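User: Can you help me understand a structure? I only have the sequence.
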Amino acid sequence: MRKELYFLIFLLSVGCLSLQAQDEDYELVWSDEFDGDEINTENWNFEIGGGGWGNRELQYYTDRRDNSFIRDGKLVIKVLQETYGNNNYTSARLTTKGKHFFKYGKIEALIKLPKGKGTWPAFWMMPEKSEYGTWPRSGEVDIMEHVGSDPGMISYAMHTRNRNGSSGNNWHYQIYPDVEVEGEFHKYGIEWLEDRFVFLFNDEKQTTYWNDLMGDYASWPFDKEFFIILNVAIGGLMGGTVDNSIFNSDVEMEVDYVKVYQKKATGISETPHQHIDVKVTDNSQTISIKGLEEKAVVEIYDLLGNKWEQMIATTNELTIDTASFPKGMLIINIEQQGTKKSYKIII
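Assistant: Let's start by predicting it. Here is the structure, written out as tokens:
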């Protein structure tokens, strides 16, 4: 029992060191902490209009100070019940399109969500140039969505040509944190890598969306630059029925900051993974990994993000028994010299 406890403590310490090393690999490349008196238009655009926005939404987005402004060092998006054009509600939708756009990295924001049935706040990303075509061909990344009709829920979603909301089969995942989701500040973020998106809530991993490694934009268009969006919608396909009594109080989303981190340049000329060879052997009974460096970390996941194995190499070769693994496609993550690479196998 004591040996098992020591081993567990060792694994936890390795995990903590790994996370710390991962954070140290990143540097801040852009942020807005909303410290000025006005919304910085060198960072943000205002999208304007009603018409449902493809989701039967009920609000009209404006660029008025009534709907978006800076207060006490925070961006505020305020929803109002008012007649505006053909709409009965107004709100704001801010984007960094054409100003700040990114490919890979950590993207995060500290946000306080509004309360009230019918609200639909979101923190998300869309492609800067839509090089693979119009939505959903070029992708969409929903870092955080929430609806007031389900007060404790946070939703993550991805849209591609093969899997999207219009066809009803997009990838999505919901969490119900053991905290008050509405009315309190929480950090929402992703770590976007070449082979996966890791979704984070208050810096804790919640789920992973994997690249199927087929090399096809229809399932993975996420190798291009994306811009950031912050908005609060009302009603619509996800927001649902609006309870107008919510407007007896202020309906606001507050954003303390938005930050983007990217990997630091390492200056290593030789690729740390160029000598690695991964094969399924013995009629799928074992996995052979050669070319490892001492202390390389090897992790094995299924396509749902469940981890089935983690080990640290003590020699340059590993042979792994597959008897306990699920049949089908697996992802092997190998980290050495501070970089990670994924390999796809089928057993």
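Now, to help you interpret it: Residues 1-21 have pLDDT under 50 and may be disordered. The two ends are 34 Å apart (CA to CA). Let me know which part you'd like to focus on.
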